[in-house]
């Protein structure tokens, strides 16, 4: 069997099939594993290129997988810092806190009342807000903007938009509220958030260590061929009993040459938002005004045009930087993309650090180095069209070409990737005959 893509989804599905006694090879186009959970290590700095954190709650399949590969709780420490919002010239901590309706977190008194209303609404509908099946919930295909009209305007401009923009790279007018609200409810308050000690690629590296992974080897084409599948790799055509495409939906649509119509409809509807950030090594740690307790600062579009936010990596975990140094990652605003993806590196660094100076005075003078991390396929947008076609996609019969990735569940998080991997492995084994010995597979989502 073959898996295309060595992100968390691809490595998880390969590990699941390996546990079932199957022979699996993973092909990765890049020279490192991890996908959007890659980590760069330079001069004593540990730099997360994509994903930033997981949660102690709402990540059941991920925690099960962590235990399975021997990751101990101390290797996934709590962050213990706050998320803040920039408004009126300073940072306001408390976004994502249970006390936000009281502390304000940058919102007016009237908007705080509606934060409490929104929290109460989530509690009342908790059983219906299923992040694995968002289309079945009470929000239907409402976009974030449409859903926000129920509340004070500040909830869109100073809560939903900055959260969606910084963490998902979403345009609230394009992406559905159901996946975002379901995730907010499930992952809980910021106090439950954790990171991987030594870098967000910890799980990927542990998984890859027990698998047959070939990096630097792009797959050019995949096609179903009767009960088997063919894949073109390095000028050769290989045959496998099953191929799992664990790549973003637009890439899967390009690779799968003869995808059935029911699959292609969902693949084409499942668009991705690009993401880009610049990580800056600093000669000393910096903090925004009013935000010394922060590890993330959100900068709403109403306040800032170039940045969606920033991550204070030295506050996220002290082991990420050499003693006495600082590290900050500047997240580009969705409205600046995809133009920044094609701009020269020097221009990207200059534009984002110039914007960041407003929030972190002294940033440009303290910067000693910078790295640009670009993801043309950042996170699935979860558009109304994708939400409409998801159920039919999941009802298709198993075939020689399957899919894994957070987009399969329209759940833009590593938990979505792990759950989709369990589902893909279950479908492969159901078609070929076989089951995982000894224990239950990783909670596949059943539709």
From TrEMBL:
Protein name: FAD-dependent oxidoreductase
Pfam families for the chain: Amino_oxidase
GO molecular function, one term: oxidoreductase activity
InterPro entries linked to this entry: Amino_oxidase (IPR002937), FAD/NAD-bd_sf (IPR036188), Zeta_carotene_desat/Oxidored (IPR050464)
Gene3D superfamilies: FAD/NAD(P)-binding domain
Protein's organism: Streptomyces mimosae
Occurrences of domain Amine oxidase (ranges): 8-429
């Amino acid at each position: 069997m073959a898996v295309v893509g060595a992100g968390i989804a691809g490595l998880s599905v390969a590990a699941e099939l390996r546990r079932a006694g199957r022979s699996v090879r993973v092909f990765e186009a890049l020279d490192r594993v991890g996908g959007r959970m890659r980590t760069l290590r330079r001069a004593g700095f540990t730099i997360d290129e994509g994903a930033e954190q997981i949660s102690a709650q709402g990540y059941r399949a991920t925690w099960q997988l962590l235990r399975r590969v021997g990751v101990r709780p101390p290797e996934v420490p709590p962050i213990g810092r706050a998320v803040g919002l920039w408004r009126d010239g300073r940072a306001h901590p408390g976004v994502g806190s249970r006390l936000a309706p009281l502390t304000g977190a940058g919102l007016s008194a009237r908007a705080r009342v509606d934060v409490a209303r929104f929290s109460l609404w989530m509690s009342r509908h908790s059983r219906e807000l299923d992040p694995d099946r968002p289309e079945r919930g009470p929000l239907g295909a409402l976009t974030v903007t449409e859903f926000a009209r129920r509340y004070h305007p500040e909830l869109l401009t100073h809560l939903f938009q900055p959260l969606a923009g910084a963490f998902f790279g979403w345009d609230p007018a394009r992406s559905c509220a159901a996946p975002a609200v379901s995730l907010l409810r499930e992952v809980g308050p910021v106090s439950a958030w954790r990171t991987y000690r030594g870098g967000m690629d910890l799980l990927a590296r542990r998984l890859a260590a027990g698998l047959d992974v070939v990096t630097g080897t792009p797959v050019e084409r995949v096609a179903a061929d009767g009960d088997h599948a063919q894949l073109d790799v390095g000028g050769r055509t290989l045959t496998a009993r099953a191929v799992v495409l664990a790549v973003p939906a637009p890439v899967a649509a390009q690779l799968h040459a003869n995808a059935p119509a029911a699959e292609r409809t969902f693949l084409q509807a499942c668009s991705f938002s690009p993401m880009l950030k610049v990580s800056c090594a600093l000669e000393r740690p910096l903090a925004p005004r009013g935000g010394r307790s922060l590890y993330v600062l959100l900068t709403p579009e109403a306040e800032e045009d170039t940045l969606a936010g920033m991550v204070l990596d030295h506050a996220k975990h002290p082991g990420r930087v050499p003693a006495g140094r600082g590290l900050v990652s500047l997240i580009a605003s969705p409205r600046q993309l995809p133009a920044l993806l094609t701009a020269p590196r020097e221009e990207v660094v200059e534009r984002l650090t110039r914007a960041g100076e407003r929030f972190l005075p002294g940033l440009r003078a303290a910067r000693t180095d910078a790295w640009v991390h670009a993801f043309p396929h950042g996170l699935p947008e979860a558009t109304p069209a994708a939400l409409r076609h998801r159920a039919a996609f999941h009802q298709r019969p198993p075939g020689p070409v399957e899919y894994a990735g957070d987009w399969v569940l329209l759940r833009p998080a590593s938990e979505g990737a792990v759950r989709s991997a369990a589902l893909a492995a279950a479908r492969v084994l159901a078609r070929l005959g076989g089951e995982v010995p000894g224990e239950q597979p990783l909670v596949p989502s059943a539709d």
